[in-house]
Amino acid sequence: MKSHLIFIIIPLVCFLFSCSGQRQKDVLDRADVLMETRPDSALILLKGIDEYGIGSKAEKARFALLVSMALDKNYVDTTTFDVLQPAIDYYLDHGDADEKLRTYYYQGRIYQNRGEVDKALDSFLNGIESSTGCSDSLTLVRAFVSQAYIHYVLYDFESYVDNNLRAAEISGMIPHKDYEFECLINALNGSILLNDKIKCDSILELCDTFDSLSDRQKQSLLWQRMVYTAKYGTTEEIVRMVSDCSVLEGSDPSWDLNIASAYNKLGKNFDAKKLLDRIESSNVDYDTLKYESIRVYVLKDLGEYQEALSVYEEFSRKMNYIDNSKFNHKLQLINEKHSIELEAQKKAKLNVRIIWGGLCGCLFLIMIIIVLLLFSRSNRMAKILAIQKAKNLTLENEKLKTTGEMLALENKNLQLERDKRALEAENLVQRVETLENESESLKTLIESQKELPTEVQQAIKVRIEMLNALLAGYITSNEQYEKPYEKWVKQLTDDTAEFMNSNRLAFQASHPQFISYFEDHDLTTDEINYVCLYAIGLRGKEVGNYMKKRSHVNTSSTIRKKLGIDKHETNIGIYVRRLLKDL
């Protein structure tokens, strides 16, 4: 019995849920149809839906967007994203052109209600950019108009005119004549503020093509014609316009300002001042900038220059504040745009790295595959060679022949090696002879110059003993003779200062003119010691390593200056060794 009840209840529940879901969809469709003509009824229908019973993300997004639309059309200025957020989360990624346009537009409206005009402009702009292929032209028109309004508040009249003209163009294609006319009137107002007479004439021609206008639209057009005539019209046209609009004098401060401007153009400055005084004394709000711009000229033409200057200063102060506000806003937009561009560049670089990383990974895998294929092929070839080994006996014989040729070549190389060693032996004989000559020269020097200082004689004796040990080692090839030589060399060279002094004393004895040359050029003892290291054949890097001083480069530079050697002329080691040979 229980199993039968389960089989009955489950289909019944599914049917009820299906009916409930279909009913919610029908209510959403009905609210969407009523949204433009009866937004109050649409809002009532939407409030009757249990939003917690809506299942999918797409249905929640549609419900959130329709509720946001209904609230806005019923003049409920929402300042939070609690209602619209499901639509933002879903439609901006998964929506079609109409859904993205609507979501961005109502997101911008919320930012606009919060006073965050920059974010509002970004939302409207994103909506317009994503509207390609959309069918909701009215929302697109409203996005342009909303953008235009923000630009008007920011005194960016060029953008204000452009956005209204684009909205008028789309409204004319729908067609929606009321929207088109209102956008043209706004564009005409902005063009007059920009002092663009050509664009004003073009827009007025378009306005004249409308056949039937409501009283409010006729009054708006008359208002703009009056402003246009007061600014660009001839005297006759201004007189005629003032006559036509005289009945409206005193009905509205804005009308009175235009009439006062016309009076100023006609030279009726007393009437203009009287009208301006009445506007100022009234408790009704009016455009103070326009009032001050007209009053300056009226007072100037009346000869009241002091008061005119005071009004002009106030007008200039307000205009400077407006210009600074516009500049700061544009600067902020530039900085934000720059930040966005930098972020986009970072993302692009990251994408490039990811792509290159993927390509390198693919290339690495391809290389591994190629290596494996080559290894497999090598194994197959080895097997084939093993099978054919018996058939390659003739090839082995040829290899043996080749081996004989290689042995002959090795014998030839051995002969070359023997010749090389003979040449080295000859060189050794020459070197020994040179060392013997130097030893004899030093001995002769000691015997012939008994007046040499003791320290010089001692240095020469040490060198003679070292040369004798080295000669004995070379002549006999006996390491026992070379050990004292190596010991002396180590003891002598380990003490850098002592060796450098000993080296200088040896050169002083054997090449006195060489040492005198440096003394004549005011080289110090340490600098002569430094030069003598080059004289025994060391190079600059070897000198620095031996001295273990970072300042040896500075010492070299000082010596160059004293000797008059240009730093680009020659290497100091070459210069010293050439000098030693010449002297």
Write a compact overview of the structure shown.
The chain has 583 residues and is an all-alpha fold. The protein has 25 helices and no strands. The protein is elongated.
What do you see in this structure?
This protein is mostly helical. Among the domains are: 9-135, Alpha Horseshoe (Serine Threonine Protein Phosphatase 5, Tetratricopeptide repeat), CATH 1.25.40; 406-582, no CATH class. The protein is built from 25 helices and no strands. It has helices at residues 2-34, 39-47, 57-73, 85-94, 97-113, 117-129, 137-153, 157-173, 177-193, 197-208, 215-232, 235-245, 253-266, 269-281, 288-301, 305-387, 393-448, 454-476, 479-494, 496-510, 512-520, 525-535, 540-547, 552-563, 572-582. Helix 15 (288-301) packs across helix 16. The chain starts with a helix and ends with a helix.
Low-confidence stretches are: 1-19
Task: Specify the structural class.
Answer: mainly alpha
Q: Give the overall average pLDDT.
A: 79
Helices and strands, in N-to-C order?
HHHHHHHHHHHHHHHHHHHHHHHHH
**Main sheet: strands, sense, barrel:** none
Number of strands: 0
Overall geometric form: elongated
Which quaternary structure do these chains form? single chain
User: What is the rounded Rg?
Assistant: 52 Å
Specify the helix fraction band. over 70%
Range of strand content: under 5%
- By DSSP (H or I, 4+ residues per run), the number of helices equals 25
How far apart lie the N and C ends?
131 Å
